[in-house]
């Protein structure tokens, strides 16, 4: 972990990374980056169209490229990562050595409820039959927890507030300064 901490929020689609990231950035008066939005802006394409026309591998490489560019800018930022960012291209190593990585944890059941309503604009869920969504999320969450649980901090996503996040970060920093 570095002295000038970037703060990264990871977790499954629908776990609240963007909502919480925005709130935390305004609480801490830090610059906020939504990695998906940043990619869409700089590539001038939606995430869906990148997946459709160029494929997932291309999207994963764009995630890594923009993540590295932004981190190297140095001024500390709050990042809402995409749901898969920490699972590809060894990004997790890079992220963990560049700041504090926080996992917003939610159960597959809670995620399914949220994602059923917004599956159409998410390329990984778009073609899954509504009856299969629960199973799909359960399995994918299980696979991804291998990565998510390597975060420096895990925090429960239900009823989470920016103040809870900030307190967890302060506690983590205090504990690590003592070491
Ligand atoms: C993805 C999650 C999305 C986006 C892309 C792939 C994933 O971000 O990066 O559709 O692999 O889980 P959100 O978690 O913000 O929906």
From the alpha carbons, calculate the radius of gyration and give it in angstroms: 16 Å
Helix percent reads 40-55%
Straight-line N-to-C gap: 12 Å
Could you tell me the strand content as a percent range? Answer: 5-15%
Mind describing the biggest β-sheet? 5 strands, parallel
| Small-molecule binders | shikimate-3-phosphate
**Can you tell me the residue ranges where pLDDT is under 50 for at least 5 consecutive residues?**
none
User: What is the number of strand segments?
Assistant: 5
Which structural class should the secondary elements be placed in? alpha/beta
Arithmetic mean of pLDDT: 94
Give the CA-based shape. globular
Strand order of the largest sheet: 2-3-1-4-5
How many helical stretches?
Answer: 8
Element-by-element helix/strand order = EHEHHHEHEHHEH
How would you describe the overall organization of this protein?
It is a single chain. The protein is of the alpha/beta class and 179 residues long. 53% of the residues lie in helices and 13% in strands. The protein has helices at 17-28, 35-43, 47-54, 56-72, 91-96, 108-116, 133-148, 162-178; strands spanning 6-10, 31-34, 77-80, 99-105, 153-156. Strands 2-3-1-4-5 form a five-stranded parallel beta sheet. Helix 2 (35-43) packs across helix 4. The chain is globular, with a radius of gyration of 16 Å. 30% of the residues are buried. It binds shikimate-3-phosphate. Residues 13, 17, 36, 47, 82-84, 122-124 line the site of shikimate-3-phosphate. Shikimate-3-phosphate is lined by residues 13, 17, 36, 47, 82-84, 122-124.
């Amino acid at each position: 972990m570095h002295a000038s901490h970037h703060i990264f929020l990871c977790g499954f689609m629908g776990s609240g990374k963007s909502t919480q990231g925005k709130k935390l950035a305004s609480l801490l008066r830090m610059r906020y980056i939504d990695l998906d939005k940043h990619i869409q802006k700089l590539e001038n394409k939606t995430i869906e169209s990148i997946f459709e026309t160029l494929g997932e591998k291309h999207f994963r490489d764009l995630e890594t490229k923009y993540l590295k560019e932004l981190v190297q800018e140095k001024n500390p930022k709050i990042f809402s990562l995409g749901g898969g960012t920490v699972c590809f291209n060894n990004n997790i190593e890079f992220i963990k050595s560049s700041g504090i990585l926080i996992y917003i944890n939610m159960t597959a059941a809670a995620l399914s409820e949220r994602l059923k309503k917004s599956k159409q604009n998410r390329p990984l869920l778009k073609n899954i039959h509504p009856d299969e969504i629960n199973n799909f999320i359960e399995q994918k969450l299980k696979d991804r927890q291998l990565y998510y649980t390597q975060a420096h901090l895990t925090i429960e996503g239900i009823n989470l507030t920016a103040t809870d996040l900030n307190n967890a970060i302060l506690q983590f920093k205090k504990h690590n300064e003592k070491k």
